[in-house]
Every structure is written in structure tokens, then in C-alpha cells.
Amino acid sequence: MANQSNPSMVRPPPLIDNETFKREAVITWCAFYVQIAFLAVFGNGLVVASFIRYSRLRTITNYFVASLAVADILVGLVSIPIWISMLLYSTGGKTLGNIYYILDIFAGTCSILHLVTISLERFFAVVYPIRRRNTSPKVYYIFLVAVWIIPAAASLSALELREINRKANMMFLFMGFFVIPLLVILFTYAKIWLTARNRIQPARDSSRSIKRDMRIAVTIALVIGFFVIAWLPFFTVQLLIVFCESCKPRIYNTDLLLFVKYMHYSNSAINPIVYAVKIPEFRRAFKQLVCCCDSGTPSVTEIVSGTDMRVASHTSHERALSH
Asked: G-protein coupled receptors family 1 profile domain spans which residues (predicted)?
């Protein structure tokens, strides 16, 4: 009896033992995955630490930036280590596979919904500035909660739907959390560019404000662009696997499968680099944290520049209503 039960106790083999995967390629890619995991945790840790430590960074937009950084830290701490474990140690059977699937879907949908929310916030800041200044902070808090709850519900639903209909599940994820959100983002940024172009002439102060908003918009547009580059190969391969039976022999090769995983994981590491390059406040904060320097009192330039999009005070509300 004991001998008969032993096979069921045997650990499921790792993916590296699968004939589809080449051992040397798997080991090489795992080294790259470790680098991405470190960069994701370290870089996004700097974003969160900067947001917490420096009050000048606690703006409406940056609340969502910091929230997105937390999601990317989870990718580096949980998703990538599980994937490496499945490659080298054991696939862990159905339970670990389901946990990994849920976390993978959660990471992608959480990122795209954060980007959609940021683009909508930028849209109202530029196109409807007075309405945006008069919006209660509670509205933003609701959105902050929603961008976590919706991905959690979507990832659990996707797990159930995958068991029933793989094609329907793939279309649900692709359309609901990639195509439609990107269309919303493209619409909002088109309106932002048009509005900024029309307003940049009149008054000097207004022009400076619009240029500041545009700088933030360009930064977020870069983040969105990298998201598309990182996730499009993954969705393309997944769609081909599900809908094109004849394509499977060409798709199931080590380098392609490991490459698309690397690409979508790399998205979790790239955002802090964009912030450091494009946003002076984050760049200074990163330097101060890494060098353990005390910034002292922020300058006037720091207070009014790039990311200064705080929730309006009562005085600001009154000024806005008087226009």
C-alpha cells in the first residue's frame, strides 16, 4: 500500500525536464528573470519609498504611480520566483499552476487598469481643470481601491472561465484588459494633445501650466508605450496557441516562450527607469534615498514643477469657483 501511494507523493517534474524546453536556454533565461525580479523590487521600492518620504511627491497622479509600483513589487517578489521555481524545481501540480495563473493575470490587469486611471486623471486635469480641482479626494480613493479589486475579481473569473471555455477566456482577457483599455487611453491622450495645442498660446501662466501637464502626459505615455511593447508579444502568442492549432508546433519552442515571459515581466522593472529619466522630482528623490542624503527643505522649483498635482486646498477651490 505504501509503495502504491508513493507515485502520488512524487513531486511533479520542472519544466526544464520537458522535451519542449532546452536546459541551457532555461538556465540562461532564469538568470535574466532573477535580474528583472531584482530591478522590479529595487526600482519600485525606490518609487514607494520616495512617495512615502517626500511630501512634495504625494500628488494625485503619484498616488496611482505608487500603487502601480506596489503591484510591480509583487511581480518581482512573488510571480517571477514562482515561475523560476516551476522552470527549475517543480511545476507543483494543479494547485501551484492555478496560483501562478491567478497572479500572472492579476499583475497584467492591475497594471493596465492603473494606466487607464492615470490617463483619465490626466485627461480631466488638462481638459477639465476646474472640475478636476473641485473633485473630492474620496473619488480618487475609490479608484485606488477599484484598480486592485477589479483585477482580483478578473483573475479569479479567468481561472473559472478557462476550465469551461479557453477561447472565450482568452477573448475576455484580451478585449477586456488590453484592447478596450488601450482604446480608452488613446482617446484620452488624443484629447490631451489637442487641448494642450489649443491652449498653449493665450496667457503666459496658462501656457506654463499646460506645458507642465504635457510633460507629465509624455512621461505616462512612455510608460503606456512600454506596457504595449512588453505585453503585446505575450497576448499574440497566447491568442495563437488558443485559436491556431496549426501554429502550435512553431510556437512551442524554448526561446520564444521564455522570451515573451521575459518581456511582460520586464514591464515591472522599466517604469522606475522612466520616472528617473523624465521626472526631476523622482530623480532627485532616488538619488537622496540611494546616497542616504537629507534633502532638507524643497526649493520653490521643486514644489511647483512637473508632478505637483496635489488635491486642491479650500483656497484653490474658491479661486477655481470664482473664474
From this structure: 43-275
Q: In this predicted structure, what is the pLDDT of residue 202? A: 52
Percentage with pLDDT > 70 across the chain: 82
Q: 256-266 burial string, b = 16+ CB within 10 Å, else e? A: ebbbbbbbbbb
Q: Which CATH architecture has domain 19-318?
A: Up-down Bundle (1.20)
Summarize pLDDT for 36-57 with one digit per residue, the tens: 999 999 999 999 999 999 988 9
For 218-225, the CB contacts below 8 A with 24+ separation are 218/278, 219/274, 219/275, 219/278, 219/279, 220/61, 220/115, 220/118, 220/119, 220/122, 221/189, 222/274, 222/278, 223/115, 223/270, 223/271, 223/274, 224/115, 224/119, 224/182, 224/185, 224/189
CA distances 180 to 173, 176, 235, Å, are 10, 6, 14
